[in-house]
Amino acid sequence: MDYFSHLDKKGRPRMVDVSHKEATSREAIAEGRVLLPDTIRDVLAGGGTGKGDVFKVAEVAGIMAVKKTSELVPLCHNIRIESVNVSCELLYKESAVAINCKVSTREVTGVEMEALTGVMIAALTVYDMCKGIDKGMVIQNVRLLHKVGGKSGEYRVSEGENL
């Protein structure tokens, strides 16, 4: 079980000890999509729902979620977040919303979980705000695109690697 850093030798969950690590610059970018029925796509293309600007609300929700990640993911460290950018874009021809979240900090552990959480909560917010029109949305392909910093160095999705 040595390869699961969040489990001790007996398989019990533990928070990884990062007290010996030095703070370094860290960055992570995640993405995801919400597939939309055409009815929702057309409403969003026309300016939004009666609940307000869906994309702005989802972007703020994603930012808030990044800051709460350690409260949502049990073994995730509570770290200082220095920058968050969440963007939502309607892809009309694909009948989808593309969501992107970039998080950066100077800390002792990475921000991959924060970036992924930002995407997920932004996607759930799109779903919540649009479910009154049609519940047939699908959240899909949430993944880490890029991360830099820390012991494991750089990770980048291979070019052309689509889900």
- CATH superfamily, please? Molybdopterin cofactor biosynthesis C (MoaC) domain
In helices, the fraction of residues equals 25-40%
Low-confidence sequence ranges: none
H/E element sequence? EHHHEEHEE
* 3D shape: elongated
Distance between the termini: 29 Å
Class based on secondary structure composition and strand pairing: alpha+beta
Proportion of beta-strand residues:
25-35%
Number of domains: 1
Give the C-alpha Rg.
17 Å
Residue-averaged pLDDT = 92
* DSSP strand count: 5
Polypeptide structure, described:
α2 (54-67) runs antiparallel to α4 (112-130). 28% of the residues lie in helices and 28% in strands. The chain has helices at 38-45, 54-67, 69-72, 112-130; strands at residues 24-35, 83-91, 96-107, 138-148, 155-156. The chain has one domain (24-146): Molybdopterin cofactor biosynthesis C (MoaC) domain (Alpha-Beta Plaits, 2-Layer Sandwich), CATH 3.30.70. It contains four helices and five strands, in the order βαααββαββ. It has 163 residues and is of the alpha+beta class.
What order do the helices and strands come in, and which of them pair?
Elements (H helix, E strand, L loop, with lengths): L23 E12 L2 H8 L8 H14 L1 H4 L10 E9 L4 E12 L4 H19 L7 E11 L6 E2 L7
Antiparallel strand pairs: 1-3, 1-4, 2-3, 4-5
Helix pairs in contact: 2-4
Question: What would you say about this model in short?
Answer:
This protein has 163 residues and is of the alpha+beta class.
